[in-house]
From TrEMBL:
Transmembrane intervals: none
Keyword terms, alphabetized: Disulfide bond, FAD, Flavoprotein, Oxidoreductase, Redox-active center
Gene3D superfamilies for this protein: FAD/NAD(P)-binding domain
Protein name: Thioredoxin reductase
């Protein structure tokens, strides 16, 4: 196993983690990013980010992450393209393990992102990858000219519907609540999309299929109380996210929903261990917030490194 020593180990490959690596490296910290080969996390499903400051035109999540990765590399950050499997805290330092490396550092910044939440209804697991998906950008092209359902009421569901509408003949947004909660600008785009219609206050109860393919989404009308089948070939699910805090939960304080408790500097209950992005409690949810978290954590790690250096003078 390769062993290397750094000032900061950043865990994750999303916007927050990459921004943390960029800022840490720019400030002269020896920085390494431990991440999967594919960068981006949930933002990979976003084809057009339209509210990132300074971007005159929409940018895809893939391109945004690639740009920040290039900036971090140019600033001097290195990348270990393996998923981190452990964090050990001993004697004021950290050891981050992966399949073939052990990375040690004064500070660790964790931005491991989230996993799409499940509906937990019959047919969801059975037809996963055979009509059921959490990624319209990845899979909408398989349903060209067909009808698909998008389940959810927030920005992710709205964005997914707009992506799916580029390929599908019709996209039905199924909102379990009485109305959508997406940003007003996104809802305006939905209203201008002729291939999209919205069904509010309907509860999915089963995904129906035949011959290893989805054929319908069974719905319960919350107002009328009746159940009926909506014929669809695909179902895209956007009903929230579960924080990927497996590495941190045994070490630090977390909320009842599994989100990590941090200070304003993104520091957890262990000094030098930071949590950023949608794994932390109170995260606002936008891509720009993830970038901000990463920058804040990197500056806090820099201050920690400087303080330790002064103590050893």
């Amino acid at each position: 196993m390769t062993r290397s020593d750094f000032d900061v180990v950043v865990i994750g490959g999303g916007v927050g983690a990459l921004t943390a690596a960029l800022f840490a490296a720019q400030h002269g910290l020896r920085t390494v990013v431990a991440t999967d080969m594919i960068l981006g996390g949930q933002v990979l499903d976003v084809e057009e980010i339209i509210n990132y400051p300074g971007m005159p035109t929409p940018i895809s999540g893939v391109d945004l992450c690639a740009n920040i990765e290039a900036q971090a590399l140019a600033a001097g950050a290195t990348f270990n393209y393996e998923r981190a499997t452990s964090i050990v805290h001993e004697g004021g330092r950290f050891r981050v393990g992966s399949d073939s490396a052990e990375l040690t550092a004064r500070s660790v910044i964790v931005g491991t992102g989230s996993t799409p939440a499940s509906l937990r209804i019959p047919g969801e697991e059975e037809y996963a990858g055979r009509g059921v998906s959490h990624c319209a950008s990845c899979d909408a092209g398989f349903f060209r000219g067909e009808t698909v359902a998008v389940i959810g009421s927030g920005d992710s569901a709205a964005d997914g519907a707009l992506v799916a509408a580029k390929s599908a003949a019709e996209v039905v947004i199924v909102a379990r609540e009485g109305k959508l909660h997406a940003a007003a600008s996104t809802q305006a785009r939905l209203q201008g999309a002729s291939r999209i219609r919205i069904m509010n206050a309907h509860e999915p109860v089963e995904i129906v299929g035949q011959n290893n393919a989805v054929t319908a989404l069974r719905l319960r009308d919350a107002s009328a109380g009746n159940t009926f089948d909506l014929p669809v070939s695909g179902v895209f699910i956007y009903v929230g996210l579960q924080p990927n805090t497996e590495l941190l939960a045994p070490l630090v304080d977390v909320t009842s929903t599994g989100h990590v408790v941090t200070t304003a500097d993104m520091e957890t209950t262990i000094p030098g261990l930071f949590a950023i992005g949608d794994i932390r409690a109170g995260f606002a949810g936008y891509v720009v917030n993830a970038a901000s978290d990463g920058a804040v954590a990197a500056v806090a790690a820099l201050q920690r490194t400087r303080e330790e250096a002064r103590l050893h003078v």
